Amino acid sequence: MGIFGMVGLDNGIVSGLEKFEGPDPAYWCARGYAICTPDIRGVANSEGDSVIWDRQEGRDCYDLIEWLGVQDWCTGKVAMSGTSYLAVSQWFTAAEQPPHLAAINPWEGVSDVYRDLVLRGGMPDTGFACLLQDNSYFGKGQKEDSLTEAQRHPLMDDLWENKIPQFEKITVPAYVVASYSNTLHTAGTFRAWRRMASEDKWLRVHNSQEWPDYYDEANVEDLRRFFDHVLKGEDNGWEQTPRVRYSLLDLQGGDRVNVPADQFPPADVTSTKYYLDGRTRTLRTGAPRRSRFSPACRW
Length: 299
Hints:
two-stranded antiparallel sheet
């Protein structure tokens, strides 16, 4: 049995054995699981050149999962879990359909590098991409220059298409976790959950931040129920878990969490359009009146 995570966080409830944004071996190994934390291609002592999220990583992970699945200590079922980068990797890997991959647990992750990371809505937005490129992916080979790519490829083309998972090929059971407030991952997580072809997929929308939510003891137990059911075949009632559990945010501190639903957005939700009023810096449900003078004409 294996849970495959990649890349420490110590917030008081983890052992210190975990890799950053990945599952804690002290918890999972004590419950019959094994943790694999590999370096990706081109990072640390791994050979080759590294890329920033594309289908190459999915193919690399395919090979690793198939190796894990035939080890003596593995039952033949491998799952993936992790937040952020480790979530993104799961979209690409599941789309490659490695036979020994039995389930995924992406916990907030970009699912379209063009739209989520470098050119949001076609507008350059490379702040985090620059941080990612300059402060990570260290290894002996070369690393991809996504900032230059964004300049040379301002429109969607084959380069960026290669950085979108083939959602229609993601068919394994999936427990997806999202939030409303992660400016990097929110859109991509919801997009992937909507488009993936998995018939057995669950969505939970939390009201906090990815790392404390991922390592929260109650949430870890909830995830274990999913893995115990899918990987071990335990009849623990997981199939009765609502397909969607979402949060309602209250700026006065009265958030409601784990509200059950059959779909997202929930069927009884009424959409409301808001308009940004630049003069008053407020959001309004009605379009602001047009000024006699355009702000662009004021000096």
